[in-house]
Design a protein that fits this description.
The complex is a heterodimer.
Chain A (H helix, E strand, L loop, with lengths): L1 E5 L23 H21 L3 E4 L13 H11 L4 E8 L5 H14 L4 E6 L13 H20 L4 E4 L4 E5 L13 E4 L3 H9 L3 E5 L3 H17 L9 E9 L3 H10 L10 H10 L2 E3 L2 E3 L9 E5 L1 H15 L3 E5 L8 H19 L3
Parallel strand pairs in A: 1-2, 1-13, 2-3, 3-4, 4-7, 7-8, 8-9, 9-12, 9-13
Antiparallel strand pairs in A: 5-6, 10-11
Helix pairs in contact in A: 2-3, 3-4, 5-6, 6-9, 9-10
Chain B lengths: L6 E7 L2 E8 L4 E5 L9 H6 L4 E5 L7 H11 L5 E6 L2 H11 L4 E7 L11 H7 L6 E6 L10 H7 L3 E6 L6 H4 L1 H14 L15
Parallel strand pairs in B: 3-4, 3-5, 5-6, 6-7, 7-8
Antiparallel strand pairs in B: 1-2, 2-4
The chains are: A alpha/beta, B alpha/beta.
């Protein structure tokens, strides 16, 4: 089992912020921001020392919850400071990006980080459609086309034009190309039928997140079926499961942490916006419809003492089939750095060595 | 414009009677069809808004390009744009090599002329001498002429532009006629300058 630490940049707001997304930019505190990015590097040095395989970063906008609107910038910054750990960029929001630019930047990063890059490509959470005025009804199609163009830009040796549905270029010929050939290990992230099919068709990995094991297993099972249809079998490390984990010395302590946790949804939208998103966005798990909007806290699927968590990881491996765990060890946005560091230490010393050989 | 804009005709050369379909006005555009025969697609309708489109049935014989060249001349066409689809691609290439001064520009749609497994060395050598502005199109879903073949033409031909048509399989012009016609018209009008965008992005003046 490979283990990844999901780095969200812990911004500690000097005063309470409104919960609604987007959070007013004027409420940003520069000193708190500077401290958050300094703290990120200090924390990740410890994460590397503990033996994590990857550190992951994601793309979220207009909120202090996850302070990496350009994950490529955070990834490059991390790569420059840490010398061994693999940087998992999970991932650029493809439908509102310029896919050629994404291909170029990831190739640069892969080369500058000496091949320590893993890439996840995705459609983005429902609120992110509003970041750069993306029509949610077009997001799925734009994601598929953008992902295909990124792969083509990485691998095509001759200058080419792209006559797409949503993207059009007359000239593409990227420099540098990725250091890893034909390209960095790449995952299509998401539970949807479309995402699993894309991953299977292009021999990519698959990544699922947060849901209970049995529910996520529907997607990973579908992904493996589709891979078989295309004549190949994914390795365990081609399936990522991103999850929240609350680990404490005892089960009781971990349960107490869970009870104390806020039930705040990650990106709370105004009621009228949420209602509109519900009608315009559509999501599924291996073809079964699911709500595009998360209304409460994301589930925490690993809770307990080190012994309990090790058994939960074993079950996750069996049920979901994931060979990579991408973990938040304390809810993003909690700002409680002491708890996070205690959880990191406990996980690194008492869980990580026992799940590595799974 | 509807398919009714096309009319059927016949032209006789070398004792061979060749059927053709013709529509539109302007600079002539000669189309050489794929192996399954002369059939009009929505792309023909789009192309005939800008060009005099003449889709000719491929004559049989050892040197069909010679017969084709004479048939085109008999129709009163001196210089023309040339589009070859699939197995019509090698035929169009031979026609362009036979009569390069008459071909203004060449479009190869999912051509099946040469491939890494089945190389036509003689054709490849001659392609290196063909200075005609050429656009080569491959569908990203094509299993008959895989898009990776595009780089072969691009590397061989001195004035070749490669464009991938997303989500199209082998029959690009039938599957994505608007995408096909847009890039073909733009290329035939502007040749290599088609790489400069003329898209308007002003939202509100």
């Amino acid at each position: 089992m490979k283990v990844s630490f999901f780095e969200t940049v812990r911004y500690r707001a000097p005063e309470a912020l409104p919960p609604e997304w987007p959070v007013p930019s004027g409420a940003y505190d520069r000193d708190a921001g500077a401290q958050a990015y300094r703290g990120m590097i200090e924390r990740l040095e410890y994460v590397e020392e503990l033996g994590f395989d990857w550190v992951s970063v994601s793309e979220h906008h207009y909120s202090p919850r996850i302070l990496t609107p350009s994950p490529i910038v955070s990834a490059a910054f991390i790569a420059a400071h840490l010398k061994r750990i693999t940087i998992a960029l999970l991932g650029p929001i493809v439908p509102h990006s310029n896919p050629v630019r994404v291909a170029e930047e990831l190739a640069m990063l892969d080369t500058m980080a000496q091949g320590r890059l893993v890439v996840g490509l995705l459609r983005g959470t429902a609120n992110e459609a509003m970041t750069y005025d993306l029509n949610p009804q077009e997001a799925r199609e734009r994601t598929d086309e953008g992902m295909e163009l990124i792969l083509r830009a990485w691998t095509e040796p001759q200058p080419f034009g792209w006559q797409g549905r949503h993207f059009q270029y007359r000239t593409v010929s990227i420099w540098p190309r990725p250091l890893q050939q034909p390209h960095p290990p790449t995952f299509a992230l998401g539970t949807s039928r479309e995402s699993c099919e894309f991953a299977a068709r292009h021999h990519l990995g698959c990544g699922v997140s947060y849901g209970p094991f049995e529910v996520m297993a529907k997607a990973t099972r579908y992904y493996r079926e589709q891979c078989a249809r295309h004549g190949w079998q994914p390795a365990p490390e081609q399936i990522i499961y991103r999850a929240n984990m609350l680990v404490a010395e005892t089960d009781e302590d971990a349960q107490a942490l869970l009870r104390a946790q806020s039930n705040q949804a990650p990106f709370t939208m105004r009621a009228g916006v949420r209602a509109a998103v519900m009608t315009l966005d559509s999501r599924n798990i291996a073809g079964e419809a699911r709500s595009p909007v998360v209304t409460g806290a994301l589930p925490t699927t690993f809770v307990g003492s080190p012994d309990t968590v090790v058994e939960q990881v074993r079950r996750c491996r069996e049920v979901v089939g994931a060979g990579v765990l991408d973990l938040s060890l304390h809810p993003p946005g909690s700002g409680d750095l002491d708890s996070l560091m205690r959880a990191l230490e406990l996980f690194g010393k008492k869980v990580l060595p026992r799940i590595r050989e799974m | 414009m509807t398919p009714a804009a096309f009319r059927e005709g016949h032209v006789e050369v070398d004792g061979v009677r060749i059927r053709y379909m013709e529509g539109g006005q302007g600079t002539p555009l000669v189309h050489v069809h794929p192996a399954d025969g002369l059939r009009l697609t929505p792309a023909h309708d789009l192309l005939c808004r800008r060009f005099r489109v003449v889709a000719l049935e491929m004559p049989e014989g050892p040197s069909p390009e010679h017969t084709l060249a004479r048939a085109i001349a008999t129709l009163g066409i001196d210089t023309f744009n040339l589009v070859g689809t699939s197995f019509g691609g090698p035929a169009a290439l031979r026609l362009a090599l036979h009569d390069p001064q008459r071909v203004l520009a060449l479009v190869l749609e999912a051509p099946v002329a040469t491939s890494p497994d089945n190389r036509d060395g003689d054709l490849e050598r001659r392609l290196a001498t063909l200075a005609t502005p050429t656009l080569v199109l491959f569908g990203t879903m094509d299993a008959v002429a895989p898009p990776a073949l595009g780089r072969v033409y691009k590397a061989l031909m001195p004035n070749c532009h490669l464009v991938f048509v997303y989500a199209a399989a082998h029959a690009i012009s039938a599957e994505r006629p608007e995408a096909f016609a847009e890039v073909v018209v733009d290329f035939l009008e502007r040749h290599e300058a088609f790489v400069i965008s003329r898209a308007q992005t002003v939202i509100h003046p």
